[in-house]
Amino acid sequence: MLLLADSGSTKTDWRIVKPSGLTILEFKTQGINPYFKSPEQIKRELRKQVLNPIEGLSQVIFYGAGCGHPKKANELALVLDEVFPAESSALVQGDILGAARSLFQNRPGIPCILGTGANSCVYDGEKIVGTVPSLGFILGDYGSGAVLGRDFVQQLLSEKLSPELTARFFEKFALDRVAILDRIYKQSHPNRFLASLIPFIHSEKSDEEVQALIKSSFSKFFEFYIHPFRQKGVEYPISFAGSVAFHFQEILLEVASELGEQIMEIRPKPLDGLVKYHCA
Q1: Is 222:114 a contact under the CB 8 Å cutoff?
Q2: Buried b (16+ CB within 10 A) or exposed e, 220-231
Q3: Per-residue model confidence (pLDDT) at position 139
Q4: 3-state secondary structure of 17
């Protein structure tokens, strides 16, 4: 049996499958990013969250944010080998390769991720052949949950949103200005906190101010993550994976159309496609 995982900064989706692709078990843990957590931290968290041992595994295949660097991938593979013993050593790859294989299988394309973070690449049907810099939610990640949350909070605390929208926010969340700034600047994982505001932003997406914020961020995604490839003559189709892309797909499709782009597919999670890829 294979243990497949797809991890973002917020959560990790796991699935145990037979070689035929039949799902045996699904479960979730916190997001695992080796840039933000030490191997010992990851090991402790996994053992705390996965209470029962998993036996009979042939291999663990893990796709995750922060796993594109070989050193970090190797560190995480050693942890996975210890926590989930299998016949073969764990295989750890970056989340964007997971999105590419899920969305395009063995066909060329431009896979995009819009979840807590954001990313894209050029995939030739076998490997990644083009990338843009991954700068995180402070310098990049346009359109992601963390950046939409960041931009919303910036507008909120600058008193640029309507009194009615501001009142609805503070009625929903037991937070004040000091508490919000504390969560962003003093506590760990500010990107997760900012992304946790996405359900509220989604519930207010028909508000003109919120819709303008979303459209602006999605436009910047195309400018930063798609246009550089187009300028180099790459005409591959585009598909998206991730919760933000899925739940805001009407606005995302509208922005794409306005920019002359067509999106082939939008998936909330890559795992279904990864099962197909690895069990084909």
Answers
A1: no
A2: bbbebbbebbee
A3: 82
A4: strand
Give the H or E element holding residue 279: helix 271-279
Angle at which helices 145-157 and 208-221 pack, to 10 degrees? 140
The pLDDT value given to residue 274: 95
pTM of the model: 0.88
Q: In the β-sheet with 110-114, what is the strand arrangement from edge to edge?
A: 128-131, 118-123, 110-114, 238-241, 263-267
The closest alpha carbon to 7, from 70, 58, 73, belongs to 73
Query: What is the predicted pLDDT for the residue at 34?
Result: 84
CATH value of 2-98+272-279 in 3.30.420.40, 3.40.50.720, 3.90.1150.10, 3.40.50.10490: 3.30.420.40
CA distance 236 to 232: 11
Domains of the chain, by residue range, sit at 2-98+272-279
| pLDDT at residue 264 in the model | 96
Q: In the chain, which stretches have pLDDT less than 70?
A: 51
Contact 26, 15 (CB under 8 A): yes
